[in-house]
Write a structure and sequence with these properties.
The chain is α/β, with parallel strands linked by helices. It is built from eight helices and five strands; from the N terminus they run E-H-H-E-H-H-H-E-H-H-E-E-H. Keywords: Hydrolase, Magnesium, Metal-binding, Nuclease, Toxin, Toxin-antitoxin system.
Length: 149
Amino acid sequence: MGCVSSATTRHIYLDANVFIRFLEAEEKPLLSMFARAAEGALALHTSELTLAEVLVKPFRDRDFRLAEAYRELVKSSDLLALMAIDRTLLEESAMLRSWTGNKLADSIHVATAKRCGCAIFLSEDARLKLPDGMLRMTPSELEGRVLRP
């Protein structure tokens, strides 16, 4: 699934740690976010890289039920655009990394968010450096600033 643009829809990129909090902590702001996406008010995006990141702990713990829950959550659907990683995206992430000093995985996520036109990057990672025009928010901040009608 690709990035779909709409003038009335807010595009939000979901970092891997957001999926972990959603499944393992069932945070209310994230439940509200998915509900708003189902209404069409939000367009949610992430990278295929997210799947590789979220599966590490379930595999290490041999928690195959949790691994399957992540596989079901992190897939293209009406609620989530799952973006493929291609050569151009890798070059864009290298350019961003040269400017920001972010780790490789973070740079791939940021390049993907930029490609999808996401103005909001949802993440708990306070060290993350983003390009101008992109704002990092935590799930709690998203609830207070975006999800409330």
